[in-house]
Design the sequence.
């Protein structure tokens, strides 16, 4: 098992490769989150990624890669699972109101413990189906939890008029574009290079048409 020092080195190198400047306490808090996830994962099966070093790459750095595109004062992370990308974003760029949404009770219990243990101000966890969530948000994040058509069909009502939807995908989802609701449009597609991750990652920036 990698030591915390080794994990910290991997995380700091990745943050530097992404060109990010984070608050002074962010690295320690990100590592605390990873440790909490690792501990709960043994009993709750929150993620298929078991290896701590892989968690740094596939969860933390993968989430942080979209940070330059996040905007606005409010953010909803739909189908967040164990808090991805919502919790890393909350630690890396504190100050916005963040709602973490998942329908799985075990995952939401973990989220509430993480919010408490990590003292994440302005972050709430909600156990709900996406279509039942209320409110409007400047920014919505969703990490490959459904097709674009389903994602926007279930959660499109949550996007503020001038808000942006950040859809995190592996390969470019060109085959999903024709199925998107007509009142949404793709404003940009960005290929993301996640340090240490050989797989393709794409970010679609979507807004109201």
Sequence:
């Amino acid at each position: 098992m990698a030591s915390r020092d080794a994990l910290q080195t991997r995380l700091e190198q990745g943050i530097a490769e992404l060109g990010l400047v984070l608050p002074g306490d962010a690295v320690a808090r990100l590592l605390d989150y990873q440790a909490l996830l690792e501990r709960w994962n043994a009993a709750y099966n929150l993620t298929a990624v078991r290896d701590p070093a892989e968690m740094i790459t596939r969860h933390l750095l993968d989430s942080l890669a979209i940070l330059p595109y996040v905007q606005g004062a409010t953010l909803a992370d739909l189908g967040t699972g164990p808090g991805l990308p919502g919790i890393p974003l909350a630690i890396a760029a504190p100050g916005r109101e963040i709602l973490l949404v998942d329908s799985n009770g075990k995952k939401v219990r973990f989220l509430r413990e993480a919010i408490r243990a990590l003292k994440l101000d302005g972050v709430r966890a909600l156990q709900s189906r996406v279509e039942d969530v209320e409110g409007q948000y400047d920014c919505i994040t969703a990490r490959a939890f459904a097709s674009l058509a389903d994602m926007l069909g279930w959660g499109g009502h949550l996007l503020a008029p001038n808000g942006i939807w950040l859809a995190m995908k592996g390969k470019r989802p060109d085959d999903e574009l024709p199925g998107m609701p007509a009142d949404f449009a793709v404003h940009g597609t960005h290929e993301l290079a996640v340090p240490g991750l050989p797989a393709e990652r794409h970010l679609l920036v979507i807004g109201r048409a």
